[in-house]
Amino acid sequence: MDELEKIITERRSIRSFKDTPVPRELIDKIINAGLFAASGRGLQVPKIIAVTNKELRDAVSDENRRIGGWNEGFDPFYGAPVILIVVADSTVPTAVYDGSLTMGNMMLMAHDLGLGSIWIHRAKEEFDSEFGKNLLRKAGIEGDFEGIAHLAVGYTKGDYPAVIPRNDGRVFYLD
Question: What CATH number is associated with residue 58?
Fold first, then answer.
């Protein structure tokens, strides 16, 4: 198995993270992988907001928890110390697809760097709210942006999940 195939087939979503800080150098590598994702017409519309400040990270987590309807105290980011938020220009027809490719690249790079990650939804609702609009302003992002997803990133706590078999009947050749 070659290196890229190994990264793709072994990456798993992590639901328990250590509170160990992730070095900025590794965060930058993950972000860079996202910036090189394919995008419709090469427009490169996704933007990435890196949340590493604990107080702000906890506020984002609490907003996500509230949107998801969980009880106070639940952390939908599973303790990950870093949250990378992907937003994209909502006026571009491929915004969601481009943002999704950005997320995929970042998840693979995190795995390659020995970090765990998990895609967390509810970014659309978050950035439709005043909370999200304030985050965009704080980041200096202007325009009509849609929340695509959050990537929780950190060092895996506990055992790494095993690779599970793929379901049959998902590929169809039309030769």
Answer: 3.40.109.10
Contact 124, 147 (CB under 8 A): yes
Domain count, the chain: 1
Whether the model clears a pTM of 0.70, i.e. scores above it, the answer is yes
The separation between CA 112 and the C-alpha centre of its own chain, rounded to angstroms, equals 15
Residue 155 tokens read as 């060092």
Query: Which stretches of the chain are DSSP H helices?
Result: 3-10, 24-35, 54-68, 95-112, 123-128, 130-139
Helix (H, G, I), strand (E, B) or coil at 173: coil
Question: Around 162, how many Cα atoms within 13 Å sit in the side-chain half-sphere?
Answer: 2
Q: How far from chain centre, in Å, is Cα 159?
A: 21
pLDDT digits (tens, 9 = 90+) for 53-108: 999 999 999 999 999 999 999 999 999 999 999 999 999 999 999 999 999 999 99
In a domain, 1, yes or no: no
Please, what is the Cα angle at 130 between 125 and 134, to 5 degrees?
Answer: 110
